[in-house]
Every structure is written in C-alpha cells, then in structure tokens.
Amino acid sequence: MMNYAIRRSGQMLVTVFVISVIAFVVIQLPPGDFVNSYLATLSGGNIVTQDAIVALRAQFGLDENLVVQYWRWLTNLLQGNMGISFQYQRTVLDLLAERLPLTLAITIPTAIFVYMVAIPIGIYSAVRQYSLVDYLLSFAGFIFLAVPNFLIAIIAIYIGYRYFGGGVGGLFSPEYELAPWSIGKVLNMMQNMSLAILIIGTSGVAATMRVMRGMLLDELSQAYVETARAKGLGEWRLIMKYPVRVAVSPVLSTIGFVLPALISGTEITATVLNIPTTGPLLLNAVRSQDMFLAASIIFVLSILTVIGTFISDLLLVWADPRIKL
Amino acid sequence: MNHDRHILLEIDELKTHYHTPQGVVKAVEGASLKIREGQAVGVVGESGCGKSVMLRSILRIVPQPGKIAAGTIRFRRKNGEMADLTAMDSNGRAIRDIRGGEIAMIFQEPMSSLSPVHTIGDQIVEAIQLHKRVPAAKAREMTIEILAKVAMPRPDQIIDQYPHEISGGMRQRAMIAMALSCEPRLLIADEPTTALDVTTQAQILALMRRLQAEFGMAILFVTHDLGVVAQMTEYVVVMYMGQVVESAPVDDIFFAPRHPYTHALLHSIPRLGQRSAGQRLEPIRGTVPDPFARPSGCPFHTRCRFNDGQRCVSELPALREVGPDHQARCHYAETLGLSGVAAPLERVSA
C-alpha cells in the first residue's frame, strides 16, 4: 500500500507538469492577447499608437517567445509567485487566496453532501426496485439531472424573493453584509452556503444515485449474495456487507471527477448566486484573456483533480482487493 | 431399508410459482420427497425442471418474484420438533437460524458464489459467528480447522486469501468448509461439481462422501449427471417440469425405472462399450415445453413414446406407490415393462 502510494505520487508529479504546459498553452489559443482585449475595452475614440501597444506588450512580457514565457511562469510558480493579474493589477496569489478557501468551503461539503445523500438513495432504489418510492426517486433524479444547476439557482432566488421576501444570492443577508464578524454573521453565512451546496449538489446527487442504483442492481443478483443469504444473514446486513461493498467501487472512482466537476460546474451557478468563489473569477479571466490569472486557476484546479483521483485510487484499492498494487 | 431413521425433511406437494408480467411460471408444481437423517438423496432432471427452485424453496431464498403457492416443507429441528418452513417469515429469525445453522447449501459456481472482496476466512468466520456464540479468535481457529478438514492445502494461509487468488477446486472446498462450519444436519448441494473439471470433480465428490460419513449429515444432491447420482446417493428423485415423476432407491432407478421419462434419461447418456454392443444413443424426443404453456394431462405426454393419446393428454397422473419405497407419476407405470440400464455407472469409492 505504502509503495503504491509513493509510486502514484511520482506519477502525479509528471501529470502536474503536463497539466501546467496544457494550462498555459490553452490560454494562448484564442487569437489576440490581453493587450488586444484590453484595448478593445478602452472607451472608443482614443487612438492608441502602435508604439504604445508595443510598449504595453513589453511591459507585460508578451513580446517574448512562448517557451520563454512558459518557463518564466513555471519557475516563478515554483517559488510561489503566480504572476500578476493584468486586469485586477494585483498578484494572482492574492486573488486566489481570497477566493480559493471559499471555493473549497463550498465544493468539499458539496461533495460530501452528494455522496451522503446519493449513495443511500441509490441503495434504497436498487433494493426496492420498481417500488413507488423507486419510481419517485428516479423521476426526481432525471429532472435534476436534466435541469442545469444555474436554472435551479435562478428558480431558488425567485422563490426566495417572492415567497420568503429575502434574497438568496450572496454570502450574507443584507443586514449582515457590512456588519462586523459575529456568531450571527457566521450562522448567516452557513445558512446561505447550505442553500448553495444544495443547489450545486443536486445534479451530482442525481447522477451518483443512478450509478449507485445501476451498479447495485447488477450485484444483487450475483451468486455470492445468495451464499450470504443461505448462511442466515439478515437481509439489510448482507446487502450492506456484500453487494454494496462491490457496487460502491465505481462510485468511489468518480470522486476524482466529482471534485473538478463541482468546481467548474459551480462557475455559472456561483455567478448567478453571486458567491465570490474562483468560478466567476476564472470566467472573467478567460473572457478578458488575463492569462496568468486564468492559467493559474486552471493549474490549481487541475492539481485538485489530480489529488481527487489519487484519493479515489487509494479508496479503490481498499474497497476492491482484486486491484493489484 | 432406512425406515429406522427419523424423517429429517418432508416436502409435500410443494408449488412455487413466479408471477411475471408475461404470466405465471409454475417452476415447481407438485414436488414431494422425504429425506431421512443421514441419507443421501439425489434430485435429477433437465435444466429448467424446477430443481434449483425447489432447493431454494426449502431455505426460503426463492428469488423475486417467486412465491411458494401451496404445499408444506416440514423439517425436524435440533430439538426434535417438526417445523413447517413454508409458514415462516422469509427474513425472520426462525428461518435464519435454520439457514446455515441446520440446513446449509453449496452452489454450482464456486467462482461467483464467494464474495470477491472479502477473504475466505472472513466469509467462514462470519458463518460461524452467526450461529455459534464464540469470540473472534476462537472462530478463526475453528475456520482453520474446518479448512483442514476439507483438505485445503495450507489452511492457515488460505484463510487470509481472496477467492480470486485460489483455484476453482479450492474455492469449492472453501464453500464446503463454510457450509459445514456449523455442522448442519442437512447439506443441500446444487450441482456442486458442474463447473469443475473432471479430475477436480472426482476429488470434490470423494471429499463430500467422506465428510458425509464423518459428520453423519443428510445430503440433498442436485445434478443432471446420472453418473454422479450413482456414485453419491442411495435414493433418487426424478423431476420433470416442476413435478416429481419418479422416486426410488438408486438401484431401482437404474435397473427398474417405472416412468418413461426416467427411462428416456437413462438411455440418453453414453456408456462405455455401448458402441461395440451395437446400441445407439437415444435422445429424448422434442424439447422441454414452454413454461408458460404447460401441456394438459401428463406434462411429459408431448415427448413420451407411450403416449396413448387419450388419458395421458387429459388426465394428470398422481404420484403413487408402484413398489417398495418406489413412486411414479404415470398412468401405466406397472404395465410398460421399461428396461433399466444393464450396468449402473461405475461407483467411485471415497
């Protein structure tokens, strides 16, 4: 197990390096650069001379060859310097430090929420296949799978506003917005966040529940389940010990994708809900070709993905001894 | 011959039906048999004749949507009381005490019958702790002991291995060890050697005979292999389309069958020297009828050489005594004069 973890860590380093190249290149792909989009946003009528453009490019280091730019970005990155956001005129590190904790504070509880709700529902649906409850859960699951999260967010805002007279968006209710930190403010934040978690998590719950149900249905008819039954085990105890244990493997293997899916999937929802996570920041950075900011966010998110996959691999090895180390 | 022994299990006119959207499948439609303590009884029949469903009915583990529709299954508990298993709640305390504790079952596929994600030891220890109040360390000790009894090589190592790490024959030994771990008085074996190669099959059969003698338990041995029946059992029950069509001591089945289906089964299997004696293999005519459309009258009439076209087609024959300890379900059981096979299949001693 230890050896496996060490070997996988080595592979992670290689993966992270490749990701850093891709993240950097992808950001360069759209035609033009920050200077173009910066000039485009300047109020019309001002005539910018060619010299000014060249000077701007030189100032941002955009006139150099791509490999040099990448190398400078990477070496700086390794020293903890992620560069400066052209648009915000602040260090990327600052911007991320502001938003990443909040992103994690939303996505990690969301991931936990997804698994805690989806796995039991999936188990129940499979064991009571074709029961009324199974039909209702499956129906609701398909609806939430089909409706985009941001639409649910908009509906929640509407319902919250129309019937409860309060705003749903943002981290705090208006009365706490500018108030100093207090227990009330923390509670208020948690309350607002739980709604965000609920909204962001719905499609994850719907998808994971379908996977769990399908996997468990396959396992329930396996011969080893009958063996356990013939032994005299009680029905629920044997279901939890045998088929669920086997069926949960594919669900665990999705942890690697769920983390980034949540983080990127939350972008639009977070924008709608007006929650200052990295999502809206990334959306903006990409739109304005703020390359160091965008590349850094993508890079950080990718590292989280790699870590998520690593965790799910370790869990898989624990869950299924047939996976050779 | 065995009338001095107590009856351990008595199935009387059992009917187990499957209610499917396409209609009712009468998987078991009138099965009756008796097993005495320590007796080895064989159940034979083609695939789909209801053997497996009958076994699962005994343990009350018939998969959905199967239901016991009629009949009784009476079992002599450890305390001597006869209990009707069909009256029990299929997930209740009473039947779960019997499962594994008093009636154990081994299955056809040793590959898939053990959980792939638990060690052999984990699965046997669990069975022991379900039925006996022993601490974990003691249960582990007992597991190594029982693994040694089924001639498992290196039992103290195998106990911590996973099923995929050992061979098919060893897995079936582990299954047998699990079944025997709580000293059941009845062992139900559902084609336990079908999935194994011939050499391993012979070893497992020899092992089961030895263990039966050692533990003094009764065995209900289901197979479609008549050779295995000849080796393993003293009494044979023949099933066709969910019904018992003939039951008799093993020698009577081979030498003096009374039901045309038993006769056809016997003559459809090849024997050594048959070709040089100028005998041809006679397949059973036709195929098993559609379970949704059971034939009228005797269910075998569509394939029977002796079909009279009247009574056989209209009237279901009853299972009746046709000789000492010998029953058959045929209108003409006494008058057909069916021939048995000249020599029963070679018996292999343990």
TrEMBL record, chain A:
- Look up the record and report any one GO term of the cellular component aspect: plasma membrane
Which biological process annotations from GO are given for this protein? transmembrane transport
Q: SUPFAM superfamilies this protein is in?
A: MetI-like (SSF161098)
InterPro entries in alphabetical order: BPD_transp_1_N, MetI-like, MetI-like_sf
Q: What stretches pass through the bilayer?
A: 12-29, 102-124, 136-161, 193-212, 242-263, 291-319
Membrane topology field? Multi-pass membrane protein
PROSITE patterns attached to this UniProt entry: ABC_TM1
Which keywords accompany this UniProt record?
Cell membrane, Membrane, Transmembrane, Transmembrane helix, Transport
Tell whether DNA-binding is among the UniProt keywords: no
Q: What is its main location?
A: membrane
A Pfam family it matches: BPD_transp_1_N
Residue ranges annotated for the ABC transmembrane type-1 domain, each copy included: 100-316
- Localisation per UniProt entry: Cell membrane
Record family assignment = Belongs to the binding-protein-dependent transport system permease family.
* Name the record gives this protein: ABC transporter permease
Source organism per entry reads Devosia geojensis
